[in-house]
Each structure stands twice: as C-alpha cells, then as structure tokens.
Amino acid sequence: MSEGYGAVGWNGFKRRYDLSIAGGAITYLVVFVAVTLLTRPADQPMAELQLLIRAFGSLSFLMLTLILCIGPLARFSPRFKPMLYNRRHLGVTTFFIALVHAIAVLIWYHGFGVIDPITSLFVSNPRYDSIAGFPFESLGALALAILFLMAATSHDFWNANLGPALWKALHMGVYLAYAALVGHVALGVIQFEKDPLYVTALGASVVTVTALHLAGAFASAQGKRSPAADGWLDAGPALEIPDTRAVILTPPEGERIAVFRDGLQVMAVSNVCRHQGGPLGEGRILDGCVTCPWHGFQYDPANGRSPPPFNERIATYQTRSADGRIWVNPQGNPPGTPVAPTLLPAAKADQQPPERQP
To answer: pTM for this one?
Structure first.
C-alpha cells in the first residue's frame, strides 16, 4: 500500500511486462509490413504511409481484443492474473498506438485539402443515414476519444479522487470503444479490402471476446448460492476454507462476498477492493489483514478498515457456524462496521485465538 502517488510503481515484473509489450508491438509491426510487402498483388500497390496506417490500426485493434480477453481468461486460469493486474500498461500503450494510426490517417487522407484535417475528417463524408456508406471515421474517432479518457485517468490519483464506483464505470467504456472499433473496421477497410484475412481477423476477435465473456458470465451464474429459509448463505464446511484464504460467495443480489478463515476464526467481507475493484477473495491474509492480490491494499477482516494511516473501508458480513459449516448473512453491514469473528468449535474448546484490536 502507498499513501502517496508516483508515476508508476516500478518493480522487476512491471519492467519485464512493459518490455514484453514493446517487443511484441515492434515485432508485430515489422512482421505486418514485411508480409504485406511480400504478398501484396502488384496491381494493388500501397504507399508507405498507407502501410503504416494499416499496421498501427490493426495492432491497436488486436491489443484491445487482448485487453478484453484478459479478464475472463484470468477467471479460468491464474496464469493470466499477472497480465490482469498490470492491464493499465497495456491500455495506455494501446491508446498511443491508436493515436499514431489516427495521426497518419489525418496526414494521408485529410492533410492536403483546403480545410483543416480534423474538420475534414468529420465533414468529408456526411452520409450518416447510410449503412454501407456510413462515415466510419467518426466511429474510429469515438473509440480514440474513449481510449484517451481511459489512459488519462488510469493513474491511482484519479481512482482516489473520482471514487472507485465512478472510476470503474468510466473504464467500462472500453466496451463502447471496442464496439465502435468493430464498426470502424467493418464499415471501413473491409468494404474495399479484397484480402479475406481482414474479415477473418475481425470475426475471430468478435467471436473470441463474446464467447469468453459469455463463459465467464455462465461461470458466475453457476456460483450463485441460494439462501436458506432464514436468508443466510451456506459457505460450506469451515475447515475446507484454506487457512488465510477465502471462498467466494455469489449471492442472488449484490456484490460477491469473500469468506476468510484465519486459523480458527472465520470472517466475511466484501470481495471488492476499494482501490480498483480487485477480487479480495483471491488474495490472502497477511499480518492479520486481507491483502488484495492486485496492488496489495489491506483491510482488517474484523472491521473492514484499512490499517492507519489509510482510510479505505469495505462492507463486512455476519457469519455463524452450525454443524461444522459456515453460514453468511448476505445483508452487508456499512463499510467499516466491526463484526465479531466466528470461532470454530475447536477454538472454543481449547484454542481461543488472540483477541483482535478494533
């Protein structure tokens, strides 16, 4: 955790991650240009700047596709979680690559007229009432504006000042940006490009992103717990909760609940970190605090409060034990509300855990 703000909290992994992004992007651009030059029919010449427009445009679309796939992939395999935790770096890079594409477009297609290039971009094709002739450039501009907004507010400073809910809602705009880019490609290059690779790549992207998100939604629906007659949720046998780890409950309504076992105590808190919405239930208890796996934000599971001098708070939930199973009241308490932990029977008999400080 950190109370201040730095440009980037660099560490060895982040450096390797960013070098991988840069290396992958450069490799893609080189391969794209080389393959296009070698396979382009002689009767379909392409200027160098046009070639770069295609290369940077397709790369930004590919990277946005990858960004949207990381979330559901991380749900199915922990191998993708390091990519998830550092997804902002990929998003910012995607914006700058898309920006290069946009600048090249303005120069090549709108830089030699009598009106300024940006105005020309929006007025040169006024056929907004046509499907086939729709000015796809405006869709690309919309996507670029959203990517800029997301890149500009990706820093923790904006998350803290806008609030996690507004910040997350703002960054959900990535789906609108993706939809705009799909329209931009479908109504643009595919309308006149004869190479079937473009249609295939666009279709593969849409199918992959849609399928992964549907599979993730299905998995979440499968994990929903039906409450008992008194409304409480069954979290399963207490001793099957790994020590210092959690099981995650998905109630019929509301956000997920992380049920932690710390030795012979069981406590339940919101599964959503106040920092960037990270999955607290995928973290662990370190030094007595639930620790978010994304960026290390911590909360005392007994009251949902970050240790001083930090002031983040999350909701807590009442728990109880019956016949060796843990039950959770899905009605969350206001963030920061102290709740007595459930002591497992063995603890009550002869292993009373140390009392927590509020």
So the answer is: 0.73
